[in-house]
């Protein structure tokens, strides 16, 4: 064995160790998030209920209520800008977050985020070591795709946190699926570190696959937010109708941002990722033109990325169409993410096409991500 | 992607405390100020059409170009694309379709009728996307005119009550109203707003690129579709297998197989020729992925036109050779062992490299040798010979499956036939298979089919002085090339690039209006009012208004308040929009 090969082997082993360590730390973070939610449930604040239940104080707050903007109050020598809620919009305050305003919950939440940062660094190191060990972009098979996917998803979450966006509430839901994703990666999808088949020798691999992973990761964040929107929206609707939601539902949903905020969050992410997804498909088409002699040939992977694209286009249109905005558009967003997910797992596993660079003897599961 | 309505009533079923009529009130307050912030068509309640053909046509057209129907067509399009990914398609893999037909004898005819083997060229799929694009054009054309009108016009004048706008601010200043308006005009123009003074207020608007991007995106989609369709009509695609040392000229008769779009003409073929000098394939030699290809490389000399200069180049999997409109792709490879056939007198009747087709990832291959003429049997009678070849680049002993794709321990298994190959019957037949109808087997001592495993240099002697077949110590490689000519690629790429740029513009740019009103109050002090309106509720609009106000405030500093508490805003309880 040559020296270079030995280095690569030890790097590959280091990568595996780092991925397992990251999983361990994510698990600790998971428990910390659970603790945050548990301690937060002691909070008795029910602002949503207060804002929506008829007869209670504040219920009569009409659309004419004005809200002071921070931009006006922060600078003294400056006229204050008053903001008027959009006509017809429900004026519900965002929940306090998983900790529910309790000090102990907040403490565990902060611990959870610190652990998430640590796990992210470990996982990032794992992906990097993997890339160095194979001397190429670490996106050659589903295992590598999965570990990069969760790294990007968590990284995006941390960046949004660092930008002081209101995203802390997504932590538990994100980390749960990150653990699932990594579990799947190390058990079912694991592929020993290796070079690429000639078909993947192209700089388009860096362009096409990296954007595909990034889009998937942020679409995922938006999908989580959409699911929570649906729950939170029916919770608010129930309260507004004068119904009484269950104690568990109240406890959890009360702490989430308002339905309108969740909806806006997922819309912004989807809208931002949509041009990038378009670019991913176009880059893939250009690559296909170089590799297969046609830029579009209705290969299953192409078909499903097209379906995903159309589904997100539906969502963006629906959100601007009377009668479709709100819940119906949210269902469309979930369907669109479902298409993305099927394009990744379903097409790789159940459908054979030009994107399956199956490794000899190891079967379809080893097929390349995108 | 914003075929939005700006003036549709908001907030249906959004809680009992706010009736929809309130929302409508608010919109009417804005008057013309809120209009045409987008060129989106108004949503109309479906009315029963007046009787008459024109009425129906108009109704149908209005339905088709409505957002709702466009949305349904989009949904339908995504659903209709699904079967094509799950059912084998003739255009992608015809042999798979044949397999499917054999396995599903009841289902296949039904699929045939529904066009499920050709989903993407089927009537129903075409109908959906054509309707969608008609709907799109029906939507874009009026919107483009409207947008041009908006560009030629000026931002609408300030509404009467600026306080009712989503973002609003006001202060009193000692400066004169005209000075304030002039200062405000300069400030917003510096920030690249389109602005003018209308009455007692400055009206300014920015973010036209949103609508421009939106229109560009949708138009680019149409360009993309037309370019794709054009390419399909004039496309040609042919395959050619070339053994090392052989060549190819780009004329129709040279292709092994060839297909083309319905408007393609033979004269459209780009004139060029090339020779395959050398093919290199390397494979992973150890580890779990042993045998996985690592490098495929074909070295060519080629010349453009009939008498072009010879040039050398290398074609790899992702790097086709481009000659004019045509691209030459490396798509497959295999082995061509050199075989010599001699007659009973020892004279060579056949000697050639025989290209064999790979059967698996380790290039276990099969093929045939057909000796068509020049052979006379032991009795001196003309006859034809046929040999079935089975080739293993790496024979591991035991199974007749190759153990590795490279030439490590080559072995050629041969079985022999004689008689009539059936090639003169006029029916085209495969060069990789024997038609055994009129062939007789050569028999071994036990009376069974004569066959032998040959190492390089070995010979199989045919019985009764019928001759011999030798596996020479030479195995050449062959490469399969696909030559594709698809016009319109440049247009499609341009369409795609414009689509992405337009899409980014339409999603990331916010179109917004700002008004600055300066009037003299009853006490002689100037009252400045500023308000902002965006197409959607966004935190950016008030932020920007705050910045503009801060700049204007420096030029028109505040004057002491009059006793007018009614104008000051009341913060809502517990609301934090940030």
From TrEMBL, chain A:
Its main location: membrane. It is a multi-pass membrane protein. Residues 139-352 form the Cytochrome c assembly protein domain. It is found in: Membrane. It comes from the Bacteria. The chain crosses the membrane at residues 18-39, 111-133, 145-163, 170-191, 203-231, 269-288, 303-322, 329-347. It holds the Pfam family Cytochrom_C_asm. Keywords: Cytochrome c-type biogenesis, Membrane, Transmembrane, Transmembrane helix. InterPro entries: Cyt_c_assembly, Cyt_c_biogenesis_CcsA, Cyt_c_biogenesis_CcsA/CcmC. NCBIfam families: cytochr_II_ccsB (TIGR03144). This is C-type cytochrome biogenesis protein CcsB.
